[in-house]
Design goal:
With about 270 residues, this protein is of the alpha/beta class. It has ten helices and twelve strands.
Length: about 270
């Protein structure tokens, strides 16, 4: 059985693909809504966050033989926990990374490597800033950008209670909160940029599935500055392997499970003999 970490729409598609290949798996998700969508597609799930120790315990208790990590490209903590838990138990770790996008040089495209760098870059440029990186790191941007009379901070994030409460707690006015579920078309992005008078847009390089290209091109074509947080690189070690295609990952996982089955049967036969 495979434990698969699912955190995105393409992770759901991968889970369905692996199941269609005859690979036994259970998807681990954070929210009940994500579990419901997977269950509707016939994929077994468990719900709730897992730290390293919790994942080790789960892997042991339920006898999983491999870990497939399809969490968000920027979910570094989830990647590290899964990788370390698998290594602690000697299990193979497979990570799916959605293909990235190649961005040409542009005078208004500013590449940075952290949320902190992004916030400081926006602080230097000033103007009407639209933040599209979600609610998890909202504090970093609020600290640097709120209260500056030359900056209007607008945040675009998922319409969940946790995000709304965080915006209120940080002092982000309701009129500057765009609570919408993506993905967004180019036309939708353009309309929002015009409505809020956006001059600077902050986003993450989360790959094609994250609709970054439509958002980025719309912003640059409208003359906005774009601050792009480059995707972090987390190296696999030991039993870890990274794939950017469903078929390649499915083949590797299938081969590993088959080899594991062969090793188990061989050991059993030796004991019987």
């Amino acid at each position: 059985m495979i434990l698969m970490l699912c955190g995105t729409g393409d992770a759901r598609a991968l889970a369905v693909f692996l199941k269609g290949c005859g690979l036994p798996l259970k998807a681990s998700v954070v929210t009940a809504s994500a579990a419901e969508r997977l269950e509707e597609a016939g994929v077994s799930t468990r719900t709730g966050r897992l730290d390293r120790e919790g994942m080790i315990a789960l892997l042991q208790q339920e006898g999983y033989r491999a870990v497939v990590d399809a969490s968000h490209p920027f979910a570094l903590e989830a990647h590290a926990n899964a990788m370390q838990a698998a290594a602690a138990l000697g299990l193979p770790y497979f990570r799916y990374e959605r293909p990235g996008l190649a961005f040409d040089k542009h005078p208004r495209l500013i590449k940075v490597h952290s949320y902190e760098e992004a916030a400081l870059a926006a602080k230097r440029i000033k103007g009407s800033v639209m933040l599209t990186t979600g609610g998890k790191t909202l504090e970093i941007f609020a600290e640097q950008l709120l209260g500056d009379p030359e900056i209007r901070l607008t945040v675009r994030l998922l319409p969940c209670l946790e995000n709304m409460e965080k915006c209120s707690r940080l002092g982000i006015e309701q009129r500057n909160v765009i609570a919408l579920q993506g993905p967004f078309s180019r036309e939708m992005n353009e309309a929002l940029f015009r409505h809020y008078g956006t001059q600077v847009m902050i986003t993450k390089e989360s790959g094609a599935e994250g609709s970054v290209e439509e958002k980025l091109q719309a912003a640059l074509d409208m003359g906005l500055y774009v601050i792009l947080i480059v995707r972090p690189q987390l190296q696999c070690a030991g039993n870890g392997k990274i794939f950017d295609s469903f078929a390649g990952l499915a083949q590797a996982v299938g081969a590993e499970l088959a080899a594991d089955f062969g090793r188990k049967n061989g050991t059993a036969e030796k004991r019987e003999g």
